[in-house]
Amino acid sequence: MTDGVLWLRGRGSIPVRNRIKYRVILYEYPCNERIRSFLRVEHLFDRLFFFARGEDAHCHQIAMATLFDLLDICDRADLRTSVLQDMDRHRAAMAGLREHPGVDSAMVDQLLAEIKVAAANLAGQGRIGQGLRDNEWLASLRGRVSVPGGSSQVDMPSYYSWQIKPAAVRNHDLQQWIEPFMPLCQGLALNLRLLRESGDVVDQMATQGAYQEMLGGKTFQLLRVWVDDALRVFPEVSANKYVIWVRFATQDNELKPQPVTRDVGFRLARCNI
Question: Do 239 and 29 touch, CB atoms closer than 8 A?
């Protein structure tokens, strides 16, 4: 850990003025269903990549199940359209920024180029993951994985035969099956990155464990809360166009949430594009 930096879980870092070393935990709250869906898909991609990098067959078992989860989500909702629509909005917002004094036009041009490439790659695809749906063996495995214990060697010996192949062979197969999802992953990651970077991080205090902020009709897409891990508390967040509520809780010996009644300092970012 570096002096003077709060390291965030997978989201970069925030510089601080003092030189105290401590760890903060990031919690995010989506303010609409579209962003909630984006965060769920991001979570699945994070899990997929983590377990696909492994070499143990049990890791690849989880990677396969996660891959099928992504297929299920793509079947139920047109994620590609939502991601492309968001990139169009980001492109329009970035283009408008170029007219503002003090804006780094080179950085804006770089972001516009990233958006253009990501949008072209995603728009140029057919139905996401169609090759996996057309693969009879994967389609059969997809049905067995949804049954508790259904992917055992008793029910699907061909899957067990694949699992005992060398790790390099399994890794190669996984990379081929994951590749069709990469344009969606990259477009989604770009959208969420731009949204996260749109929020200013502000120090706040939850008096007796609760924080309230009146919005006066202003809406946000994403709220981000950082809290010192040493406090052993977590936020429960709710928001609408009128108010933001952040209530902190802790867990008892049975892990049941219990409200915190002491003051809790935290950092808050309100994100919207």
Answer: yes
